[in-house]
């Protein structure tokens, strides 16, 4: 039918046809209303997604743990499903009950008992730590008679480098008393301490020459401070001030402070058996008041945190119980509707089904590698180590079981970070060498070695994370997600690796397709 408009008809007749084999630069574009509809839909999805994230972020930990437990107990669930004649709800209920009895309840009892033992240990920390420190000093030869005098000398040396003060204060009687006199008196007291310790403290090296040099340097410095104080008094009375004189006094103060501090340090090092031995003895003999204050502060800071875990009215307990309820419910529904949920998510996701299947397989593989292998290995190491702790005579074996199992999940540190200090405690503090040696042999030969056997048996040669990435992922996971980060961290790294592999595969596919078209 001819076009009604003659002009349009002539344009159509005269319009040049597109050359064969060439693409049209501007193919038919969607309408503006269609574009606006898609944009508004994306904004709506983004807004609702943010709200959904805020609603569900509080349930991340129980849902994540429920997914892990479902993956781990899936073979058991399939076996129960077969035994119950394919009744899904009954088999899911029985599997959930099994998870509750085998995993959740024992873990809760373990944490509760370990917390109680830790609270008791904190309450006994002050006296036991003092006794332990005394025994350690005796075993290592770090006893220091008259430790308080050496600490006073050490503090005096530290204060010698402080710049000489220039402020004077007037007393009620009209006298002018400066800090120079106070520092000179401290130096006199330091000289008296050196004389006393040189005569009263026996040592392999008498250090007579060093003591004489230190005393002479102290006296010279103290006399210089008194002369500077007298000069300032004269300037105050006459009302004349000489800036050059004050500058010379300040330079002389710094020079004498360095010489005196070096002389005192030199005598202390020779008297106490060397530089390293001197520092070790000072560190191993802290002030009793400061040590008691440190222990008391640590106990007051840590004890309430663990007492709240065993308090029925604590908010943490309420949150934990609520999370456990969500976890149990999620396990039940994941077992019943898990495949349907996965199918729905795959249908709604714009990602290719092959990639989604790859991610699901990676989640299954990583869950077994990280959770089943690592947790099973950690539990076995904790049980084996606890047997050694019990034979060695430790009282808080449940606490040690919990700590050993927890540290066994951390790469590089492992169970050795618990049984090694326990063996050292037996050898140095309690002076029981045979149990200490046996515990060390048991820990090195059995506890820490069983990790390789279990992981090889469970993983069957499947690849694991590089040890460096495993350590960093655990540390970063704990800092971001809390304790659950021990499991989440490695899985995040594995998922990132999987996504990068998918992206690399997609880019290679596009490159191959473009090359085939060009050819």
From TrEMBL:
Membrane topology per record: Multi-pass membrane protein
Q: Does the keyword Membrane apply?
A: yes
- Principal location class: membrane
Subcellular compartments: Membrane
Q: Which PANTHER family match?
A: TRANSMEMBRANE PROTEIN, TRANSMEMBRANE PROTEIN 245
Per the record, the domain of life is Bacteria
Please identify the protein, giving its name as recorded.
Putative inner membrane protein
Example GO CC term: the record gives:
membrane
Give the transmembrane region(s).
32-53, 59-80, 92-114, 321-348, 369-391, 397-426, 433-450, 470-496
Q: Which family does it belong to?
A: Belongs to the autoinducer-2 exporter (AI-2E) (TC 2.A.86) family.
Tell me which Pfam families the record gives.
AI-2E_transport
What keywords were assigned to this record? Membrane, Transmembrane, Transmembrane helix
